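Reviewers asked in the last cycle whether our approach scales beyond single polypeptides. To address this, we selected a multi-component target totalling 590 residues and predicted its structure end to end. The input consisted of the following lines:
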Amino acid sequence: MKYKSQKVAYWFFALSMLLFGLQIVYGFIMGFAHAGMDGLHDVIPFNTARAVHTNLLVVWLLSGFMGAAYYIIPEEAQRELVSVKLAYVQLISLALVGVTAIVGYHFNYWEGRKFLEIPRPLDYLVVANVLLFLGLILVTLFKGKRRTTTALVLSMGLLFAALLYLPGMLPFDSQVKDSFFRWWVVHLWVEGVWELIMGGILSFLLIKLTGVDREVIEKWLYVIVGLTFLSGVLGTGHHYYYIGVNKIWLIVGGIFSALEPLAFLAMALFAVNMYRKGEKKHPNKLALYWTLGAAIVSFVGAGLLGFAHTLPQTNLYTHGTLVTAMHAHLAFWGAYAMIVLAIISYSLPNMTGRKLYDSSIGRMAFWFSNIGIIGMTVAFGVAGVVQVYLERKLKMDFMEVQKEVEIHFIVLIICATLFTTGIILYMVDFYKHGRPTDEALDTSSN
Amino acid sequence: MLSKKQARAFFLGGTVVTFLIFIGLTIYSFSKAQDQSNDENITEAVVRGKHLWEENNCMGCHTLLGEGAYYAPELTKVIERRGPGYIKAVLMTPVSWEPNGRKMVAYGFSKEEAEDLIAFFEWIGGIDLNGFDRVVSPLSKDEN
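The resulting structure, written as structure tokens, was:
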């Protein structure tokens, strides 16, 4: 840690950890309900659990991205944050809005639009919160001594993410238009600007961990985010195949979303090559595990498994089935959860001064969570393929098919338990680092 | 070898071009001649039904146009599949609906509300879904 104000990142990461834990709890509620054990139905019906599960994911990842930005931007811009106090105001308001929304979902207070369930009045608070965040980051960046590509890409990703929130607030009478513009937010976040944020964090971590020249890393960063947008923007079309819009999207969406894995492949190759090339081996092995892991697992989860059902011919049958859940779990884990865990693993020892670089708890956390989620992905995949075949091909009744696939949800729960063990170990490791302190300030030149 | 400047030009150029094409295609697909979203048949009842659909987060369990959660049946062609009487009964019942043991929240909608939701589902059923309607419709059974 080179600047005192970077410490604020710690509290964003702590909030992330807390919400991540809660997200998993709601995931279990849904898993058990799918397996036929819905004892909580009267208190937390499935649609509540579902809204909480996905929204908590978004909030903890955003909190993680924001923490990452508060850590990275001062170091890249070579100056303190413009206002630490306002950063704390932003943190607390983020937590309050998030918690209000989550509590509201238990009392039928929501918008009922997949992933964007946050009710309209709270939407405006989210916008205000994000504007404050962006203000702090951008002013710091522009007052800074230098403007690096890494910082620019990261800030651009955050800025676009904020702008793209707006189409989701447009009111429509038509379900088709509603859905169409909802994907402008959801798809262009997840398969567009969030990849910019991921790329920015990845590039920062690779510069720090491998010691490869910044110019080389940042050049490839441009190529990767270039590929992301080139494929991802028109790749939005894969959500438009079967929702009531023109057939042109079958062609455009099919071609461009088939190219989307290339961006992730490039990211994986880039990370592995930089690691091989690097002469400086940073002692923080755990951060390296998570960084390379994010690049590789995101290629498998987002790239390959996304490709598996993105072609219109396949998607005609898999659209709206558990196959989507299979892809979504590994994609979000690999691309976004792991990159947040990577930046936490890297920055935590620097903020707290405790150099727990290669603890066995930390390593177990990595392997348990990864093996667990791969098992979960397989369980979802098998359930999904069975569902597609029985329901869409053989035209069996929905609930009959659900009975057939119940067993796969038991497997899912077992794998999820392993995954959760990993995450708990990660949290233990987080806790063991203690609080951030000014004594951890690194006064050496680099 | 590619320079950093060229890499940046690739990123910025590619982004601007694809985004412009994307906006163009959006305008094209909602233009009058190309629109297939059954827009002309939206009535006040359909809009009221859509609000009910959203207020109760039906998408949190069901899918519609293939979008939503995978806990409860796809409702795109539900009127065709079950008929309006059955749907009305499910929507208005004060006790939890439990087909095969899986519970639906007992919303206990009024008759008017149930009718609005049925109007909404009927409107959804009339959208041209590029073939997906056949996949989720029971009437396509014979064709496979």
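Chain B touches chain A through 70 residues (CB under 8 Å). We regard this as preliminary and will revisit it once experimental data from Aim 1 are available.
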